[in-house]
């Protein structure tokens, strides 16, 4: 299911399915592992997901040890996990070697699932957290990927930096990136970075960020809830529910 190949055409929708969207883990230590264990338990208690999207900032310091811990923990779900880098996934401004070693090929890529087209792209600019620009290789990739599919196919985009209008630390060229989806059936774009729930619109699509799924870091809007989205795709639309995970006693 993973990879850069797309079947093209309209892609017949074979029915509804569930998937997870997790952002901003900021893994540091064993307490983070305990919290992620609770995340996995919450996943088991809900509707079974068929895959998981991890929208950046898997680590806090960009170390190989942090990445391997996150990879091992999420592998326990037994479903495909599709990751993308965040700005905290760099060790220095120009060093993302550890991320690329543990998650090779997980920068700009797409996959098909039951008639849907999922496109993930790298919106980072090293360690920079604000006033960033999504680089040309990512925008070129998006354009080339969308040219491979029928414009009526439902599309989900996922990346680290928020795309929604007026959201804190939105990339400077977010509007230009969204224009690439203008003539396609974009339904939802998931982002992170701003540790808060936001919801904006682009044509008929919903652009969202979520509270962080992190033990080590706070939400930027002062809220205390931590967790993830459980999403359902059905009839060409995406619905989502926030699933809270307690940090108490860790």
Explain how this protein is built.
- This protein is α/β, with parallel strands linked by helices.
- 20% of the residues lie in helices and 25% in strands.
- It has helices at 30-45, 64-75, 97-102, 136-146, 174-179; strands at 17-22, 52-55, 81-84, 109-113, 116-120, 154-158, 185-191, 198-202, 205-209, 227-234, 237-244.
- The strands form 2 sheets. Strands 4-5-6-7-9-8 form a 6-stranded mixed beta sheet, with helices on one face. The protein has a 5-stranded mixed beta sheet with strand order 3-2-1-10-11.
- A hairpin with a 2-residue loop joins strand 8 (198-202) and strand 9 (205-209).
- Helix 1 (30-45) packs parallel to helix 2 (64-75).
- The longest helix is centred in the first third of the chain and has 16 residues, at 30-45.
- Mean pLDDT is 95; it is low at 1-10.
Order of helices and strands: EHEHEHEEHEHEEEEE
Outline: globular
Terminal CA distance reads 36 Å
Nearest-angstrom radius of gyration? Answer: 17 Å
List keywords for this structure.
alpha/beta; 6-stranded mixed beta sheet; 5-stranded mixed beta sheet; 25% strand; globular
How is this fold's topology laid out?
Layout: E1 17-22, H1 30-45, E2 52-55, H2 64-75, E3 81-84, H3 97-102, E4 109-113, E5 116-120, H4 136-146, E6 154-158, H5 174-179, E7 185-191, E8 198-202, E9 205-209, E10 227-234, E11 237-244
Helix pairs in contact: 1-2
């Amino acid at each position: 299911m993973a990879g850069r190949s797309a079947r093209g055409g309209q892609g017949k929708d074979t029915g509804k399915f569930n998937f997870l969207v997790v952002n901003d883990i900021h893994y540091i230590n064993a307490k983070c592992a305990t919290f992620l264990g609770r995340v996995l338990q919450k996943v088991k208690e809900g509707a079974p997901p068929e895959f998981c999207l991890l929208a950046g900032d898997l680590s806090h310091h960009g170390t190989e040890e942090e990445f391997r811990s996150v990879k091992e923990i999420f592998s326990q779900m037994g479903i495909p996990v599709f990751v993308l880098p965040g700005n905290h996934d760099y060790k220095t401004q120009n060093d993302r070697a550890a991320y690329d070693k543990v998650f090779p090929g997980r920068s700009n890529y797409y996959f098909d699932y039951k008639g849907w087209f999922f496109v993930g792209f790298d919106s980072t600019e090293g360690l920079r957290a604000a006033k960033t620009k999504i680089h040309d290789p990512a925008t070129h990739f998006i354009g080339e990927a969308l040219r491979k599919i029928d414009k009526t196919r439902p599309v989900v985009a996922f990346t680290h930096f928020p795309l929604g209008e007026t959201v804190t630390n939105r990339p400077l060229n977010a509007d230009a990136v969204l224009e690439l989806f203008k003539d396609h059936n974009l339904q939802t774009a998931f982002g992170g970075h701003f540790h808060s729930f936001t919801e904006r619109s682009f044509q008929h699509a919903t652009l969202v960020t979520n509270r962080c799924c992190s033990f080590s870091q706070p939400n930027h809007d002062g809220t205390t809830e931590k967790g993830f989205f459980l999403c359902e795709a059905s009839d060409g639309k995406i619905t989502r529910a926030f699933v809270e995970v307690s940090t108490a006693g860790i």
